[in-house]
Structures are given as C-alpha cells and as structure tokens.
Amino acid sequence: MDFISILSVFVLACFVGYYVVWSVTPALHTPLMAVTNAISSVIIVGALVASAEAGSIAAKVLGLLAVVLASVNIFGGFAVTERMLAMYKKKERK
C-alpha cells in the first residue's frame, strides 16, 4: 500500500473512533474500557514480537515505547473501571 492509502485509513479510523467513543452512553462505559484494555494487550504482544525480530536499535526503542504506552493505557483503564464500579457499590452501615 502506498502512503496516501495508509494515511487515509488512519484518518478515517480516527474520525470513526472519536464518534464511537463520544456517543457511548455512561452505562456502556465499563464494557468499552474492558475492550480497550484487551486491544492494548494485543498491542503489547505485537510490539514485543516486532521488537524481538527487529534488526535496528531504533526499531527496538520504538517497540519499547509502544509497550510502555500500552501498559500505561491498560493500568489507567483498570483504575478508571475500578473507580466507576466503586460508585455503584452499596456503602456499609455501622
């Protein structure tokens, strides 16, 4: 594929992703975060495989950067999901 085709797919994916995420009702936020965490875990596996097979140092550094950013996304997603679920728990009475 040429650069224009790849850029067009990327721009369209950004627009579709933006409108999909902002049109989600609050009740579906937690399942959406779970799917986002699953996608980020696939990105981590792909980055590990790609950086292991890379021949240059720059590719290994970019692979490490991808792993770090996806890890931050996963841990942040779990933290947000935990906070949202805590809002729905009944408080204990003493």
UniProtKB/TrEMBL annotation:
Function: The transhydrogenation between NADH and NADP is coupled to respiration and ATP hydrolysis and functions as a proton pump across the membrane.
Enzyme Commission number(s): 7.1.1.1
GO molecular function: NADP binding; proton-translocating NAD(P)+ transhydrogenase activity
This protein's UniProt keywords: Cell inner membrane, Cell membrane, Membrane, NAD, NADP, Translocase, Transmembrane, Transmembrane helix
Keyword Kinase among record annotations: no
Catalysis performed (reactions): NAD(+) + NADPH + H(+)(in) = NADH + NADP(+) + H(+)(out)
Subcellular location: Cell inner membrane
Residues passing through the membrane, by range: 6-25, 32-51, 57-81
Membrane topology category: Multi-pass membrane protein
All copies of domain NAD(P) transhydrogenase alpha subunit C-terminal, residue ranges: 7-90
Entry-linked InterPro entries: NADP_transhyd_a_C
One Pfam family here: PNTB_4TM
Superkingdom, taxonomy of origin: Bacteria
Source organism: Sphingobium ummariense RL-3
The name this protein goes by in its record: proton-translocating NAD(P)(+) transhydrogenase
GO biological process: one example: NADPH regeneration
EC supergroup of this enzyme: translocase
GO cellular component, one term: plasma membrane
